[in-house]
Amino acid sequence: MKRSNRLILLIGVLLAIVAFVGIILLSQGPTGPSGQEPVEPVELQTVIATEDIPLGVIVESDMVTTQLLATTARLAGAYESVSAVVGQVARRNIVAGAQVTSTDFLAIVNPTSIVCPAGKVCMGVQVDQVSGVGTLIRPGDFVDLLVGFTGDKFPVIAPNPEDPTQVQVVGGLNSTSVKLLLQGMQVIGALLPPPPTQEGQPAPQAGTGSTALTGQQEIVILAVSAQQAEVIKFTQLDGSITLVLRSPTEFVERDENGQVIDPPPVVTTGIILKSLVDEYNVLTPQLVETILPEQQ
What we know:
By secondary structure, the chain is α+β, with helices and mostly antiparallel strands. It is built from three helices and ten strands.
């Protein structure tokens, strides 16, 4: 046999050996550092609530702890680290001993049911993109109610000079009045219908960075006292309602039952046109006199 033929045969044998070893390695599958298959952990650290965390409360480090739980016992979305939940706002009630999951901080709209807090009544307020903070109000938020009454609700009257027994409405006066009426009401639920779209144009998608004034509506369900419910109903009938969003950091104090303690109300003056002129230096129109040229 020629030397060149022996060399070709030797190369063929070596390639066959390499291929055989490769097939064996692939058939064994992935292995760990020790040559064994990686083992899935049977237990993982899991964040557990150490006390009841009511809706709207900002989670603090002393409200939660971690426990080793079997992976088969952990809920979907359960957290492993306390630092991952501290500072987040609870969007539903979290009971002591429960696993803390991502769902607890997910602002769910269009719920099928709500639970009204004891001692409160729940009522809906319809707002839009302008009067409802862009329809971004979610369960657990705290809001104030701003109301405006137009001038026709406050007619200025004076005696009729032709008949002193009668009165007449004085025209030309601005009687519009605005007041921050109720403060610190908690949102229990939010109902958000699909946004309307112009024919042939899709609605902007969330997260795209675009906003369209589509007239989007939202029904915000508030937990209020019976007296507050009467006030809200009156303003719905005769006024214009706007909800303004409060910072959750203002509602961190809690009583012995774990319920949020409302901060002291902010005292406001209310606004009418005269207030804007006297206190905010809004300029009033001035009469300008001029001499008209004589006509020839």
